[in-house]
């Protein structure tokens, strides 16, 4: 099942969200940016998409030290490599 939610604003016809039901998940895609998110309900998929698009548009915030610690990341010992791991090449 798929639902298109378009803008009624004729000045911005690119504003369009596609909602698709895939198994137990609703998948929401912002067609303009290509950002996709999901949720167990239509509402949660759309809320998650709003957050993902905000991050994509640069409206997000850096993670706090506590958030990084909770997932086991130490910024002082974290290094970016010059090349991708073999599995990503």
From TrEMBL:
The species this protein was found in: Halovivax cerinus
Biased composition (Basic and acidic residues): 13-33, 58-68
InterPro entries in the cross-refs: DUF7387 (IPR055811), TTHA1013/TTHA0281-like (IPR035069)
Region of interest (Disordered), residue spans: 1-89
Name of the featured protein: Type II toxin-antitoxin system HicB family antitoxin
Composition bias type Polar residues, residue spans: 1-11
Gene3D superfamilies, A to Z: 3.30.160.250
Superkingdom: Archaea
SUPFAM superfamilies (UniProt xref): TTHA1013/TTHA0281-like
């Amino acid at each position: 099942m798929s639902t298109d939610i378009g803008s009624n604003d004729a000045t911005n016809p690119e504003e369009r969200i596609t909602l698709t039901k895939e198994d137990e998940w609703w998948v929401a895609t912002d067609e303009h940016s290509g950002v996709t998110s999901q949720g167990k309900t239509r509402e949660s998929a759309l809320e998650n998409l709003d957050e993902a698009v905000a991050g994509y548009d640069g409206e997000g915030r850096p993670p706090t030290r506590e958030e990084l610690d909770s997932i086991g990341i130490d910024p002082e010992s974290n290094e970016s490599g010059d090349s991708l791991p073999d599995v990503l090449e």
